[in-house]
Amino acid sequence: MMNGVNGMKSRKLTQDGWPRKVAILSDYVRLPYANGATFATQFLYRELLKRGCEVTIIGPRDPEARPQDMPERHICLPSVPLHNHPGVWVPLPLENVFEQARSWDFDVVLGQTATELMELGLWLRRAKGIPLVCVNTVHVPSVYPVVMPEALHHNELAHKVFQKTFLKLAESTSASVYNESDGLIVLCRGLEQYWRDRGVRAPIHVIPRNVEPRIFDAPAGADPFPRNMRRGARMLVVCRHTREKEVERLLRIFARWVAPSVPDATLTLVGDGPDHDVFRRYAEALGVADRCWFPGEFSVTQMPTFYRHADLFVYASLSETYGQVVSEALWCGLPAVAFADGMGVSQQVEHDVTGMLVEPTGDVDAADWRFGRACVSLLRNPRKRHALGATAERHARERCSPERNVDRFFMAFEAARRHADATLRGRLEPDNRWLDARYAARWMAINGLVYGLGRLRPPAVVNRHGRKQPTWNDLMEPAAAPGAAAEASVG
Questions:
Q1: 118-128 and 168-180 are packed helices; what angle lies between their axes, rounded to 10 degrees?
Q2: d(CA 300, CA 35)
Q3: How many Cβ atoms are within 10 Å of 377's Cβ, its own excluded?
Q4: How far is 276 from 291, CA to CA, in rounded Å?
Q5: At 61, which CATH number?
Q6: 475 near 46, Cβ under 8 Å?
Q7: 0.85 exceeded by the pTM?
Q8: Which of 231, 269, 468, 476 has the most beta carbons within 10 angstroms of its beta carbon?
Q9: What helix, strand, coil percent values describe the chain, rounded to 5?
Q10: Residue 82 belongs to domain spanning
Q11: 67, 157: one domain
């Protein structure tokens, strides 16, 4: 359940000065392309430093990382490259990881990772008594379509096989990890129920992601849209260009239901990813390429300019644990039309209050028509669009308040400490080599599978223009700016 913080003043640490030393398990120590989960991790890193914590990022070793890309304190683990996503590295339990981890000293571990790196957090909990809080960062049913070869993507039998094997394995493994932890953070209420239905018994905390005011309260800046894209009819979507984001569906809706009804309507698709070129070819096949703009990925610091110069945010994805870009758009006063996913997007877009929420159930064509009709209605009604945008901005600032949500993390940490004290008393196994082998085996097996599945598809261009994202310290307030970087590399 969501932990309330009404009336609580922001605090640096708990009353007894705990937690002083926080470790965050992350899938990236360098950010090669836009990634909502890692933006959230970077933001939390900066906020924890501001509140007096010593924060260490633990993640895969990235040979391309430069010293200035790294957080002040970091531990790099042995890793192998993910074939189909250049710049992404998969951590593995090699080079005596557990032996070296016996000397690590943390008060709490936050597992903000979508890989089996979480096994390291479980080991630290059992061997050293360090409380572990997990964060669910991916919608598990959406994972397998990303790794499916193109030849199997439209094969119904292949989908059934993946669902009965890979999906079941991913769900059961995740539930097992969460049950061995001291708490699970989910980003919306829908996912709380999702994991309860799959057997998670650990405490669950609902904590939305934050929007960073230092970025999204910046002035709008110069209009980034091409001159032929007229104001009042600019539709915008921001996402990774991968199958699960339903970009092809959005293009169909635009071509069939919006473009014929609003002659000036245009669709801008900011982002990059494995299916970027597929989506561009699809826009050409639909006959709307001249009204669609694919500018690529931009730094998150440039995104407010797009949001503030657009007229309508559109989102067809049904795979969001949260949907960070939806929060960003609403924060900037841009109303949204989206499908009701029962998860992160549904928690953010309030129908006829901050945008239009469309039911995706039933006949697909009918749902697409409803989505298109909502877009046309708002494009033709600027007064209503502006009213929704003003409410969206106000509600987003209430829901995504950094101070309030960081307080919730501290409450989750404190609850995890109590849970660990109650469940681990007298059960620590600091020198148990069988314990090392148990966690290493599952870590190696699952991440080895991820590495293997990554070879089913050819390498993708994930950020073709090479636009840089902020590093861990780029947005640091002067008072919290780090000193010399402290590095530990296993092996």
A1: 30
A2: 10
A3: 14
A4: 16
A5: 3.40.50.2000
A6: yes
A7: yes
A8: 269
A9: 45, 15, 40
A10: 21-210+401-489
A11: yes
Cβ-based neighbour number of residue 356 at 10 Å: 24
Give the helix/strand (H/E) hosting 328: helix 324-331
For residue 36 the two structure tokens come to 């909502």
Alpha carbon distance 272, 461 (integer Å): 8
Q: What are the start-end ranges of the E strands in 271-406?
A: 292-296, 312-315, 336-339, 355-358
Q: State which amino acid sits at residue 358.
A: V
Residues 319 and 205 in one domain: no
**Residue 2, CB-side half-sphere exposure with 13 Å CA sphere:** 14
- Angstrom distance (rounded) from CA 29 to CA 243: 26
- The verdict on 383 and 239 lying in the same domain is yes
What are the structure tokens assigned to 309, written together? Answer: 């110069």
DSSP string computed for 244-264: GG-HHHHHHHIIIIITTT-TT
Q: What burial class does residue 341 get, using C-beta atoms within 10 Å of its C-beta: 0-12 exposed, 13-18 middle, 19+ buried? A: buried
Q: What six digits make up the tokens of 227?
A: 């001159």
Name the one residue in this structure whose structure tokens are 């379509």: 145
For residue 232, how many C-alpha atoms fall within 13 Å in the half-sphere facing its CB? 8
What residues are paired with 74 via a beta bridge? Answer: 57, 487
- Residue 240: DSSP 8-state: -
Determine how many CB atoms are found less than 10 A away from the CB of residue 263. Answer: 9
pLDDT along the chain (491 residues), means of 10: 32 70 95 86 93 96 92 95 88 95 96 94 96 91 67 72 77 94 95 94 94 90 95 96 93 98 98 92 98 96 97 94 94 97 93 96 93 98 97 93 91 97 88 92 92 82 86 76 54 44
Residue type at position 234: R
Total domains present in the chain: 2
If asked whether residues 321 and 338 sit together in one domain, one would say: yes
